[in-house]
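Retro notes
What went well: the complex prediction finally ran end to end.
Inputs used:
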Amino acid sequence: MSADVVIALSKGRLQEPSIKLFTAGGVQGLKLQRFVAGTWADCVLGNLNLGILLIRDDDVPTYVARGAADLGVVGKDVLDETTEEVVEILDLGFGQCRLSLAVPLDQQDGLSNGNIRRVATKYPRTAEQFFRTLSWQVQIIKLHGAVEIAPALGLSDAVVDLVSTGRTLKESGLVEVQVVKECSARLIGNRASFRLKSSGLKIVVDMLRGQLEAN
Ligand code: PRP
Ligand code: ZN
């Protein structure tokens, strides 16, 4: 497990487009099939040895901030929730989705702080900031998954959740009433790595910039 540059990729929705982007940019050794969460792939980009790691999206900023990885690919939704210190380098353009406020279908009219007192979400920081700008007094209920079932069970009046195709909301009888934030995949980096491994990082960042310009 020795590499010039270590890159942490997010498993889940960003996994496949991330692998495609790195492969199109000339990274060799990334095989889609056998690459599962927690695994490490020894790769090369020209003369550079890359270690590419696939982990849970919420953990990517932690690995990068603490130097276990030099670079990472993570959604803006996750990035804005983290308290870890990382540098946002590039908007990679894929994985577009949004964080939205959604309520049960029969509650979509007369939307006000009066009807929305409790909001379930995996994104408490972003949600708190959003309601602060509205000057709404709201109780944020932090969940780790299956946020969409909270209103039907009486846990919350609304949710702030990630919307991609919209299927999850629809199947749960929820309707999007306001976009909180547009999101996409971002390249992030470790601050110290920019000094200590500047030439290696530059090769990877330039490769990704080139891919973005070509597309
Ligand atoms: C998000 C979100 C919804 C779903 C929305 O979860 O919480 O459940 O995706 O996608 P859709 O609009 O296409 O139905 P995610 O997959 O990010 O779960 P995670 O907590 O495992 O990251
Ligand atoms: Zn996630």
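What we learned: The chain has two domains: 5-95+184-214, 97-183.
What to try next: split runs per interface for comparison.
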